[in-house]
Specification:
By secondary structure, this protein is an alpha/beta fold. It contains six helices and five strands. The structure holds 5-O-phosphono-beta-D-ribofuranose.
Length: 160
């Protein structure tokens, strides 16, 4: 099974990132978590991304706030798919991080989820792995079915 990398720019992002970690745990995915910053530890961030494919990563989730260049800096050095989570950690309520993460120049894609959208980042990473992993694909289908069932139960309750 390919691993999923989770990188955050600061330990202050961990509260949000835990949402992604919990989701990956629920699916039994293999993952690694690191604190690497595009600005404060550029060498380590670059080394991680340069070696990501050879180290068995199938997707990389990058969470950062403020001038959130982490996902783009990681994507610059690898063709392993990169998913960016803009973190709400400034007086601009995450809009700064959203724009910094999503506005990539042509040629270097980053799949950006919502501000603090850690759960969807994890699910998207799993969907990427599921392209070539039937077990993960089945778990994702089961999860969707459970979600639908829960909503329909609530629907029945209000209809009664
Ligand atoms: C970003 O700046 C981090 O990703 C974090 O969201 C924000 C604040 O970092 P700290 O000053 O709390 O370390 O680089």
């Amino acid at each position: 099974m390919k691993k999923i990398g989770i990188i955050m720019g600061s330990d202050s992002d961990l509260g949000v990132v835990e949402g992604a970690i919990d989701t990956l745990k629920k699916f039994g995915a293999e993952y690694e978590v690191h604190i690497y910053s595009a600005h404060r530890t550029p060498v380590e961030a670059s080394e991680f991304s340069k070696n990501a494919r050879k180290n068995g990563f199938g997707a990389i989730i990058c969470a950062a706030g403020k001038a959130a260049h982490l996902a783009g800096a990681i994507a610059a050095n690898t063709t392993v798919p990169v998913i960016g989570i803009p973190i709400k950690s400034s007086t601009l309520d995450g809009l700064d991080a959203l724009l910094s993460t999503v506005q990539m120049p042509g040629g270097i894609p980053v799949a950006t989820v919502a501000i603090d959208g850690a759960k969807n980042a994890a699910l998207l990473a799993l969907e990427i792995l599921a392209v070539s992993d039937e077990k993960i694909a089945q778990k994702l289908d089961d999860d969707r079915a459970e979600n639908s069932k829960a909503v329909l139960e609530k629907n029945r309750a209000v209809e009664e």
